[in-house]
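Example record

One chain of 276 residues, shown exactly as stored in the release files.
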Amino acid sequence: MKYKIEKNTVQETLIIPLYARKVCSELYPNLYRDETAVRLIDEIDYDFSEAEKNSRGLMQRFGSLEVAMRQNDLAFEVRDYLKSHPNAAVVNLGCGLDSTGRSCDNGSCKIYNLDFPDVIAVRNELLPAGEREENIPCDLNNTEWFRKIDSSNGAVFFSSGVFYYFLTEQVKALVQQMADAFPGSVLVFDAANRTAVKMIAKTWLKSAKIKDVGAYFAVSDAQKEISPWNSRLKVTSRGYMLGYNDLRDPSVSGFFRFLARVGDGMMKMQIVKINF
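Predicted structure tokens for this chain:
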């Protein structure tokens, strides 16, 4: 029995990134493989014809490569933290149907997946929590969820494609409170500059009828802009298209490598890492 997802529902917003991860796995198998996404697409009753059609255009294929690189980079940072903190909490902020926590599981860490209650309801059906794993329904901006995270052996928090939808003040408040609550932990997320955020925002801002794009979280120089938020923050960043991988793979065209340089350079598409 397949799990049915209707059009024009909040649940539908989970389909787009999930489908992108499936497409990445098909287009760039040497660079990225998400078996869970491939499996879940088969388990969901949904009309994928439009997503399929859209996924084959040139810029859509580049978008899939962006998704692949972003997930790889975040997973790299999670695994890197687990090397020195093997029993840490691995916390996926705004998890959707992403299984990065599981793919980084070292057999002793604790995995937490956080998202809105209606998203977690879908996740519980399609990706029920395994052992050492917990799916937590919450609003990330309400820090009640802090109490549910056992960070006694360290914690690595990561967030993929989420903070673009937050106001700068919300991200700042969250980071400041996390710095106080989880000393010694790390937060890793993707970010981009104002130009890129305006492009990302074009579609959803229109539907949400939001006028002021300027209030949304965007970063050009992460160290300079985020470090003043709290004296104990150690902020670093790397381009997310080429900062972790040179993309010298036969599946990636020279044109896409050029676009990757533009993304990391002019758009400041980056992975920001904050040590608390």
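Notes: The chain has a mean pLDDT of 92.
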